[in-house]
Amino acid sequence: MAEPSVAFRPESEASALAGRVVGELLRRSSAARALAEKLLGIGVRLADCIDVLGIPGSTELRRELETNGFEKVDAGRAPAGTELWEHHGAILPLFELTAGGRLCATVRVESVVDFLAASGLGRHGEIEGEPGALVRRIRLGDEPLAELWVAERRAERHRVAGRALPDAGPGPAAMLRHL
Fold it and tell me: Which of 29, 32, 71, 171 is the one with CA 20 to 30 A from 145?
């Protein structure tokens, strides 16, 4: 049998860092705990569904991210005003370094509308983004120390970061033309 062309290397320190942040999110957010419980009931871990983790930035955190194999995303790929870090050797969330003390997580779903109907979880606000947009999202939890969002995307996950919605993309009319 031929040797694999890509060598597997466990990234336990990077995974542990993400796990600590998710643990802190669960401690701070009742919405995240409720979602984690629902997901675990079907054999899915919340941490595996998170696209972007927003965490207060510091020099120490930047050093820890870099030490554990994360790389800063080029400003041209990140939404304006965001600082993103990603790990190319592991399937981990993007880290978005933020100002302030709140944690924020964005969970990727296939459809925001279907998720809301199936989950039975509460929400804070209206769905942002039109059907067929590159990103569509809604806030599920808005607490003093944590925010929880769910988002559907038809673009790279960098576009989910930040609070401003990205451009709408082609929209449903352009998609329907190709059906």
Answer: 71
Name the burial class of residue 74, with classes exposed (0-12), middle (13-18) and buried (19+) by CB atoms within 10 angstroms of its CB: exposed
Residues 6+ positions from 159 with CB-CB distance below 8 Å: 79, 134, 135, 153, 166
For 71, the token pair is 């790389």
**Confidence tier at 2 by pLDDT (50, 70, 90):** low
CA distance 20 to 145: 16
pTM listed for this prediction: 0.87
β-sheet bridge partners, residue 136: 152
| Cα–Cα distance, 152 to 146 (Å, whole number) | 20
More confident of the two residues 169 and 23: 23
Contacts by 118-125, CB closer than 8 A, 24 or more apart: 119/35, 119/38, 121/31, 121/34, 121/35, 121/38, 122/31
Output the CA–CA distances (angstroms, integers) from residue 24 to 21, 34, 129, in the order listed. Answer: 5, 14, 29
Residue 56's CB is within 10 A of a number of other CB atoms, namely: 13
